[in-house]
Amino acid sequence: MKAILFTDNAAQDMYAGYMSKVSNAMEGTEKEFRNMILVEVHNYIQKGMDKMEEDRELVKMEQIIHELGSPYVYLKQFVVDNKLDKALKSYNLGPILLQLFQSAKTSLKYTVFFVLYILVFSVAVLVIARILFPAQTGFFVQEGGFSFGFIRNIDGATEVLDEWFDPFVLVICILLYLLLTSFIKLNRSQTKTRFYMERVERENLGQ
Fold first, then answer.
1. CA–centroid distance for 68 within its chain
2. What is the domain count for the chain?
């Protein structure tokens, strides 16, 4: 992408300053994403400059920047989503929870995902409960059914996992974590596909 060249130095500085803000607003995101957004903003400015009847480049730039607004505002959710995609690729729990928490403020879907992660790892608390209350924590089988976790009344129940309880709990947590993360990755992939399709449609309508 080549920078737009202006004859007015003030307009040139304004353009360069704005593109720098756009770049800074995307700090920590993937290179492909940054390039795509920079091209989008660049093209928006270029089309705006070409369409306006105003001759003064500085006035044009001021109006276009006013229309766009602050990149820290309109790129915020895109940046969070991209950082989430980046974290999902590595299955890194810390960044995933951080980005889901950021998205949960504006999206019910991400709120649900965040809560599901918390529930998955709350199962791991049973390992601690097993240490503190070994007789009442486990996988209990009794007449008419079974119970899993911390059980107050264990009369007539038999704990069947014994020393395998901790590994069993950890395996469950890991499997649920991998399944949930894979599901969110699939959901994000579908969301990005819809975004790119809408982008192509807008470009085609603009031709």
1. 23
2. 2
Q: What's the pLDDT tens digit per position in 15-69?
A: 999 999 999 999 988 898 899 889 989 999 999 898 888 889 999 999 999 999 9
Show which of 74, 104, 130 is a domain's final residue: 74
Would residue 128 count as lying in a domain?
A: no
User: Residue 207 is encoded by which pair of tokens?
Assistant: 């031709």
Average pLDDT on 174-189 reads 88
| Domain interval for residue 65 | 1-74
In angstroms, the CA 32 to CA 76 distance is 17
Beta bridge partners of 137: 150
**Tens digit of each residue's pLDDT (9 = 90 or more) over 62-104:** 999 999 999 998 888 888 888 888 888 888 888 888 888 888 8
- Sequence letter at residue 83: K
DSSP state of 75: T
Residue 147 DSSP SS3: strand
**What is the residue whose two structure tokens read 């991209």?**
82
Task: Please give, one letter per residue, the 3-state secondary structure of 88-123.
Answer: HHHCCHHHHHHHHHHHHCCCHHHHHHHHHHHHHHHC
User: 78 is written with which tokens?
Assistant: 């895109």
Whether residue 177 is contained in a domain is answered as yes
Predicted TM-score (pTM) of the model is: 0.67
> In the predicted model, what is the mean pLDDT of residues 184-206?
62
Task: Say how far apart CA 134 and CA 140 lie, in whole Å.
Answer: 12
Question: In sequence order, what are the residues at sequence separation of 6 or more whose Cβ sits closer than 8 angstroms to the Cβ of residue 52?
Answer: 60, 63
Residue 68 and residue 80 share a domain: no
